[in-house]
Batch of 2 targets.
Target 1
Amino acid sequence: MNKLVFQEGRELDLVATGRLAIDLNTVEVNIPMEETTAFKKYLGGSPANISVALAKLGMKVGFIGRVADDQFGRFITNYLKKTGVDRSNIVVDKSGAKTGLAFTEIKSPKDCSILMYREDAVDLRLNVHDISEEYIASAKALLISGTALAASPSREAVFVALEYARKHGTVVFFDVDYRPYTWHSVEETSVYYNLAAEKCDVIIGTREEFDMMEMITMKGNTDDGVTARKWFDFNARIVVVKHGKEGSYAYTKEGEKITGAVFPVTPVKTFGAGDSYAGGFIYGLMNGMDVAEAMEIGAGSAAIVVQSHSSSEAMPTLEQIREFIANYPKQ
Ligand SMILES: Nc1ncnc2c1ncn2[C@@H]1O[C@H](COP(=O)(O)OP(=O)(O)OP(=O)(O)O)[C@@H](O)[C@H]1O
Ligand SMILES: O=C(O)C[C@@H](O)[C@H](O)C(=O)CO
C-alpha cells in the first residue's frame, strides 16, 4: 500500500486523548475476586496505556485529558512524567469528579474480568475548551479512543479534536475501545462510533467491537472485509480487525488483506493485549514499517504484556519486542 504520510517537522509524534485512569490489578491470581485481598495500583485507561507503550518505544507523546485533583490524579501525572509523556495539556479538574478505577480479576489465564468504577468519571469531563488546535497541529498523529465518546462534554471534545486533526493533516488513529458499561444503549453507541470512525485514517477494533458498530445498519455481518471496506469510502486507509489469540487482519484502501503474525503464549491475564498491540502497531506504521511488520511488532508486544501483571508498566521496549520475536520457537 502507499504508506501513510506523517507531516515532518512536528514537535510531537502523537497526541492521545481520552481517559487517564487507574488499574487495580489483583495480586493473587487464579482465584475469584471475592477471595482476593490485595490489589496493585498501575496507570490505566486504554489511551493512557497506549501512550506509555509509545513512549517506551521512544516516541514523543503528549496527552489531552482531565485528572482529578486528588492522590490518584497526581499518581497518574507523576507516572506520565516518569515515562516522558508531555502533560502540558492535561487539566486538573476541580469539580469533584473521580478518577475511573478498574479492578481486575484473574480467575485463570483465560478467564479474566474487569470491575469498573466509573460513576462521575473525571475523564468524561473533558470539554471542547480543553482541546488546543495548536497542540493537535504540533503532532504527526492523534489517537482517539471510543470510550471518550460515551458522554458529553467529552464526546464533543473528541469531535473538535477530530476537526482540528483533519484540518492540519494530523493522522488519526481510532482505537474502538468499546466498554459497554459506559454507554446507555446500543443505538447511541453505534451511531456515535460510526460518526467518529468516518473521520479517522486508521481504525483498530476487535470483531466484537465492529459487531457493535454494525448493530443497526449492517446487523449480522461477520465478514471482516465487508467491515473494513465501508470505511474506505470515508477517510480510512487501514482497518485492523483483532481476533484475540487467533491474531488479527489488516485491510488497506488499496485492497490488500494482511494476516498479522501472532505469538501464542500462556498468559498471566488476557487484558492489556489490545493496548500493547495498538502501541506496537502505531509505532511500526509511524517508523516506516509496512503493515505486516507493524502488526508483528504489535503482536510481539501483546504477547509480552499478557504474560505480565500490568498493562502499562509492562509495556516493552523495541529491543525487548525484537528479542522476544527472535527467540519465539519457530512453528
Ligand atoms: N494469549 C495470547 N498470546 C499471544 N498473543 C496474544 C494473546 N492474546 C492476544 N494476543 C495478541 O494481542 C492482539 C490483540 O488481542 P485482542 O484481540 O484480545 O485485543 P483486545 O480484545 O482489544 O484486548 P484487551 O483484552 O486488552 O481489550 C492479538 O491480535 C494478538 O496478537
Ligand atoms: O482501559 C481501561 O480502562 C482498563 C485498562 O487500563 C486495562 O488495563 C485494560 O483493560 C487493558 O486492556
Note: Residues 291-306 form the longest helix (16 residues).
Target 2
Amino acid sequence: MPTPSSDPSVTVRADHLRKAYTVTEKEPGFLGSLRAFVRPKTRTVEAVKGISFELTGGEMVGFLGPNGAGKTTTLKMLSGLLHPTSGTATVQGHTPQKRETAFLKQITLVMGQKQQLIWDLPAQDSFLVNQAIYEISDTEYRATMREFDEVLDLSGILSKQVRKLSLGERMKCELAAALLHRPKVLFLDEPTIGLDVNMQERIREFVREYNARFNATVMLTSHYMADVTALCQRILVIDGGELVFDGDLSALTSGPDARKTVKLQLSQPTTAARLSEYGELIRLDGLDVELTVPRSEVSARAAALLTHFEVADLTVEDPPIEQVIGQLFRSERKPEPVEALA
Ligand SMILES: Nc1ncnc2c1ncn2[C@@H]1O[C@H](COP(=O)(O)OP(=O)(O)OP(=O)(O)O)[C@@H](O)[C@H]1O
C-alpha cells in the first residue's frame, strides 16, 4: 500500500483513510425518544477502516463493493464533504476537507441518487449558476456546451424545468453541469442508476470522451458491471470498509485466482451438500447445476463430477463478472473444498 509518494502523476491518494460515524441509538416510541434524550446511547460505525491507494492522471478506476461497504463515504472524504476520522487524502495536491477554491475547481462529485440541479428552474439556469461559481468565461462556457451537446444531445432539454425532465434527461444535465468547469478528477457515484440501457451507454460514452479529451482521473462506483467493464481497466473492491482487491479487472478472469463456471445437467437428482464438495455451488435447480471451480483445476473437477454423478451434459464457461466480483466480497466467500476430488 502506498507510502508517501512524490510521483507527480498521482492525482488521488488515500493513506490509511478511515471514517467512523457515531450514531445515537433510540428505542421506538415516545418513551424511547425520552430515554434517548435523557441518556443518549451511542454506537460507532466503522464505515471505512483505513484504506490506502493511489490513482494516476487519466486513470479510470471502478470502485466496487456491496451495499454499505463504504464507497460513498470514501468518495465524500476524497471530495472534502466529510472529514476523515484518521488517515489522509490528497487530491491534485490538495487536502480535500479544506475545500480550497483551487481544489474545488479541479474536482467534481456526481451522485446519481442525489440531485444537484435546481428543481423548479430550467437546467440552463443551474448551468449559469455554475458558470458564475466556477468563474468560467463566456467563450469557454459556449465551447464546453458545444462539446457536451455533441455527445449528450442536450438541445431541447436545457430550457425545460428540471422537475419535468425524464430521469435520463436529468442525468445528462446533472453530468454536464457537474463537468462544466472541466475538472481533472471525477468522482462518479452511481451515475447511471435507474437509466435504461441506451442512456447508460450514452453516459458511458460521454465519460469515456471526457476522460480522453481532458486526461481526467475517474473514480466510478456502479452496480452495473457493464459500466465498469466498458470504462475501467483497474478496480478497487471494498467490503466492510476494507479494501479487498486492487488490480486489473482482467486479472480476475484470467489470473491465478480466476475461476470457471461448470454447468451440469444431471440425469439423477442429488443434494447441494454432495455437489458442494466439488466447487462453490452457485445454483441447484432440479437437475440443473452451476458450480464455480478454480480455473487451474477445471479439468480435474469436471472429470470428478463426471465420475461421481449421472451427467447428461456438462459445459465450462467464464463466470459473469458480477459473480467474480461477488466472490471477492468476504461475506460471500466460502472455503474451497478439495478432498472429494480423489
Ligand atoms: N451519516 C451516517 N451516519 C451513520 N452511519 C452512516 C452514515 N453514512 C453511512 N453510514 C454507514 O456507513 C456504512 C458505509 O456506508 P456507505 O454509504 O459509505 O456505503 P456504500 O458502499 O456507498 O453503500 P451503497 O452501495 O448501499 O450506497 C454503512 O454501514 C452505513 O450505514
Note: The longest strand covers residues 10-25.
